[in-house]
Write a structure and sequence with these properties.
Low-confidence stretches: 23-37
Number of helices: 6
Distance between the termini: 50 Å
Order of helices and strands: HEHHEEHEHHEE
CATH superfamily: Nucleic acid-binding proteins
CATH class: Mainly Beta
Strand order of the largest sheet: 2-3-4-6-5
Shape: globular
Strand content: 25-35%
Structural class: alpha/beta
Amino acid sequence: MPCFNKLDAVIQIRSLHAAALAHQAAIFERPLEPRRSGKARGTSIIELIACRQQLHGQKVRVSGYMVLHIEHVAIYLSEQDAKHYIMKNAIGIEVPDLAWKERGQYHEKYVLVEGTFDAGFSSGELFIYSGRIRDVVRLETRFVPSELQG
């Protein structure tokens, strides 16, 4: 029966961890692929926050938890981030007028938004959020199974 070698196990775990970190670094350091005009890039709020400069001006499609108040319109990474006003984990949204008319359909719900990402670099604006999505062409609610709802 082979004896468990603790040192070999630690070395193996460390090498796996190093390989995972190298892979993660390669993902984040690779340049973002240019997109064809008219095609929205499917992305996450995390990627928008982490790659603001590269994604500025690009058409994006992102999901998140929407808050639709008069002076507080944003999609958050999660419902908990919205409830605790963690605004750096949110992207501001310039919603179309129709969204205000149908506010109950989007407010405090998970949504999919498609529009142009604005990191605020070109206009010099300082956002309370980590950027904004303007020129929204798509806004729809996302299905969340009842067992996952708060």
